[in-house]
C-alpha cells in the first residue's frame, strides 16, 4: 500500500514571477485507474524494452523534459521513492496514449484539476514584500531543518533495530566467557578444565540469554539491547544441578590436595 504524501494533491512550482501547476504522478495514476508502478513504466519505459516510454521519446526529440515531467520523490516510512510532478502538457501526452472512454475520462479529470489550480494562482494576493519573502524563506528553512532532524531520528531508530554488527557480537562473547570462567571457579579450577562441564555452563549461559530476547542466535539480538544483554549475562546464575556439579568437581581438587 502506497504512503500518502502531504503534497499529493497538486504542487505549485515557482518559476520567477510565474508558477507552474503540476499533479503528483500518484494522483495521475489514480485518475487513470492503474498502479503507480505501471504509470512509471509508461513514463520511463520498461527495462525489457517492451514499452519505449514517453521520456526516452522526448529525449530523442530534444524536448525539455521539465515542460512535461519533473522528477521528484515521496517518503514512506524511512525510505524515499520516485515519483514525478506532471505538468498539463505531460498529462496531455498521457491522455493521448489512452483510448476510448478511459482517455476521455482522464482528460476531463486532469483538465478540471488544472483549472482548479490555475484559479487558485489567479486568486492569489499581490506580490510579496521583501519582509514577507524573508519570513517565507525562514519558515521554509525551519521546515527543511525539521524534516532533516526527523530523517536522522528515523535513521538512528532503524540502526538501533538492526541485529548486532561489527565488534558488538565479540563484546557479548567476551562477557559470556568471563562470566562462565567466574561461575566455574576461575581458570585454575578443575571445573573450568573439565571440557564437558565447561561446555554445559557456556551453553546454558547462551541459552539463558537467547531466551530473554526470544532469538535463536545471539547475533540476532537487536543493537539497542546490547547493554541489557550484558547485564543479563552478569546476573546469570547456573541452575541447581550445574552448581552441584561444579562444587563436586572443585571439591575433588581440594580433597586431592589434602591427600
Please state the average pLDDT score: 81
Number of strand elements: 4
Q: What is the helical fraction, as a range of percent?
A: 55-70%
Q: What's the SSE pattern?
A: EEHHHEEHHHHHHHH
Strand content: 5-15%
Major sheet: 4 strands, antiparallel
Radius of gyration, in angstroms, nearest whole number: 33 Å
What low-confidence regions span 5 or more consecutive residues with pLDDT below 50?
Answer: 1-9, 12-18
Number of helices: 11
Strand order of the largest sheet: 1-2-4-3
Q: Assign the structural class, choosing from mainly alpha, mainly beta, alpha/beta, alpha+beta, or little secondary structure.
A: alpha+beta
* Distance, first to last CA: 77 Å
**Tell me, what's the shape?**
elongated
Number of individual domains? 2
TL;DR of this structure?
It is built from 11 helices and 4 strands; from the N terminus they run E-E-H-H-H-E-E-H-H-H-H-H-H-H-H. It has 2 domains: 11-126, no CATH class; 168-258, no CATH class.
Amino acid at each position: 500500500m502506497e504512503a500518502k504524501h502531504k503534497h499529493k494533491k497538486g504542487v505549485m512550482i515557482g518559476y520567477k514571477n510565474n508558477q507552474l501547476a503540476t499533479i503528483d504522478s500518484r494522483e495521475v495514476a489514480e485518475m487513470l485507474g492503474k498502479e503507480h508502478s505501471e504509470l512509471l513504466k509508461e513514463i520511463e519505459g520498461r527495462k525489457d524494452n517492451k514499452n519505449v516510454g514517453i521520456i526516452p521519446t522526448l529525449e530523442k526529440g530534444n524536448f525539455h523534459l521539465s515542460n512535461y515531467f519533473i522528477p521528484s520523490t515521496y517518503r514512506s516510512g524511512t525510505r524515499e521513492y520516485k515519483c514525478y510532478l506532471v505538468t498539463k502538457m505531460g498529462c496531455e501526452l498521457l491522455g493521448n496514449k489512452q483510448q476510448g472512454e478511459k482517455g476521455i475520462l482522464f482528460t476531463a479529470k486532469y483538465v478540471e484539476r488544472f483549472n482548479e489550480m490555475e484559479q487558485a494562482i489567479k486568486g492569489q494576493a499581490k506580490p510579496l514584500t521583501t519582509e514577507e519573502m524573508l519570513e517565507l524563506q525562514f519558515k521554509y528553512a525551519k521546515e527543511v531543518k525539521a524534516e532533516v532532524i526527523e530523517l536522522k531520528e528515523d535513521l538512528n531508530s532503524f540502526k538501533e533495530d538492526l541485529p548486532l554488527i561489527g565488534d558488538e557480537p565479540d563484546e557479548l562473547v567476551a562477557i559470556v566467557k568471563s562470566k562462565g570462567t567466574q561461575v566455574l571457579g576461575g581458570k585454575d579450577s578443575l571445573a573450568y578444565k573439565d571440557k564437558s562441564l565447561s561446555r554445559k555452563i557456556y551453553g546454558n549461559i547462551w541459552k539463558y540469554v537467547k531466551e530473554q530476547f526470544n532469538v535463536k542466535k545471539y547475533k540476532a539480538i537487536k543493537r539497542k539491547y546490547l547493554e541489557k544483554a550484558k547485564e543479563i549475562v552478569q546476573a546469570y546464575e547456573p541452575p541447581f544441578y550445574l552448581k552441584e556439579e561444579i562444587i563436586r568437581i572443585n571439591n575433588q581438587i581440594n580433597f586431592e590436595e589434602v591427600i
